[in-house]
């Protein structure tokens, strides 16, 4: 979690299998305390979300005022369908290797390797 380039306030995992709480008890000693405070596992319904998120941001399935998951899914699929041609064109893009410079600017050699980075040790 130290390498994530965003600052997380909390991680909520919903509909967790009860076995996961036992697994977390095993893993807990290996995770930093500040990270454990941010991790919340919820095995019940989604009523807990009302305390964390405004109801206008929650889908209707979770007691919010937004549309239900099925409607949101349909809207997402329609938006993706609108951009179908763009996705298909992006899939066709490839690197043109003939435009790659071959004049010795290739850094794949031993320049950055371990060779030559150690000084000779003279032991008396």
From TrEMBL:
InterPro entries, per the entry: CRAL-TRIO_dom, CRAL-TRIO_dom_sf
Single GO cellular component term: membrane
PROSITE patterns given in the database record: CRAL_TRIO (PS50191)
Domain CRAL-TRIO: 1-70
Matching Pfam families: CRAL_TRIO
GO molecular function: phosphatidylinositol bisphosphate binding
Protein's name in the database: CRAL-TRIO domain-containing protein
Organism of origin: Timema genevievae (Walking stick)
């Amino acid at each position: 979690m130290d390498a994530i380039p965003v600052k997380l306030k909390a991680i909520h995992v919903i509909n967790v299998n009860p076995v996961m709480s036992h697994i977390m008890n095993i893993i807990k000693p290996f995770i930093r305390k500040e990270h454990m405070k941010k991790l919340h596992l919820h095995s019940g319904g989604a009523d807990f979300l009302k305390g964390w998120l405004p109801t206008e941001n929650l889908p209707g399935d979770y007691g919010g005022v937004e549309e239900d998951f099925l409607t949101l899914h349909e809207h997402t699929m329609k938006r993706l369908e609108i951009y179908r041609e763009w996705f298909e064109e992006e899939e066709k893009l490839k690197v043109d290797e003939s435009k790659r410079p071959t004049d010795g600017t290739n850094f794949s050699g031993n320049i950055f390797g371990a060779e030559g980075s150690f000084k000779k040790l003279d032991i008396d």
